[in-house]
Specification:
79% of the residues lie in helices and 0% in strands. By secondary structure, the chain is mainly alpha-helical. The protein starts with a helix and ends in a 13-residue tail after the last helix.
Amino acid sequence: MAATAEAGTEEAAPPASRRALVAGSVGNFIEWYEFGVYGYFATIIAARFFAPDGAGDAEALVKTYASFALAFFFRPVGAALFGRIGDRIGRRPTLILVVLLMTAATAAIGLLPTYATVGAAAPWLLTLVRVVQGLSAGGEFGGAVSVMTEFAPPGRRGLYGAWQSFTVALGLLAGAGLAALLATVLGEDDLQRWGWRLPFLLAVPLGLAALWLRLRLEETPSFRRSSGRAHGAGPAAGSAPAAVPPPSAAATWRAVGLGVGRLMGWSAAGYTFLVVMPAYLQSTLGASFRQALVATVVANAGFALAILPAGALSDRIGRRAVMVAGTVALLVLALPLLNLLQDPDASPAAKAAAVFAAGAAVGLLAGPGPAMLAEMFPTTVRYTGLGLAYSLSNAVFSGSAGLIITELIQRTGDADIPAYYVVAVCAVGLPALLALRGDDHRRALRD
């Protein structure tokens, strides 16, 4: 039914599908570019905003990650707020509003006064900006994935949805690459005093480009059909009959909870290996800022290279097979890979291979993940449902990763804490992935 209608739309307007892919992806790029930059500069931000004496000690780093986590805990609020708007008035206007808020908040970090200038107000101002970022980021994922998957041609939802994750990788890589470039070009003093601000200010031109793309975006076929039925417009001659009534709130929340279970391994492993790693390498293993960033670039390269093939593969063999394979790989490899990084006698090539493999394993989850979530919810609650599942998973298992890992290492002195964290979360989430139906990738999205 719906598959036929979607196929006809795709054949008639492939440029609209391409615009949807780009416009949906660009906001994710900006969002994760900023979150990556914040993580990569965590030690500098700790010294500038959370340490009165300017020293980036462990306590200041924990406070920095607490601010990091707070933004994630506001994501579900943003997902519920903007998801409700997006399911009622449309994906396009909601995504335009979200990218404006995200751009303004990110640029504001680059302009904030530090502790040395305004004293105790500095961490509060930073935290307030992080809250706004959390709200806007919570509204980004649900709308972007809805747009990509609702415009996707039949049999290609996994690949289309994977672009969301791919632009996450590109954003993290761009943030890491720019941070590494600044660390190389600027002296340590200039980087500490003002150079760290530049990546945040770069959000302004990026946000303007995203706004232009989203202003050219069309509303999705699925939302137009759903909205037409909601306003009493019957189906056109020869089209699909009216859809079943919207799911109950209880059914939607059950699906959200199941979605969190299916995403938790991706959330925990992704932030542990792709964002928290620089601070871990510096504070626990004694690596330099530049060495830590290079390692993170390699890990994110492995992540990026695995995402699109994993999404495309899931269109052929199913989301379950690919995501379970990624989870098992993380369960088996997390501790050995971390131990290799800790080994002072291991070669740089071996360590590079370790972080690359960790990133690629996360990519096996991130590729099929967006399409898997979109297939769990009907159009009437898709923006809200998949946005909530994603943001709740990230709030608990990503946003808290740096805080949990840093605090536990500080208390126990055990350098293996990151691996234990990843293994524990992946083990708990594996049964939810195993419960996926093997043929979900062949079914049409529910209207």
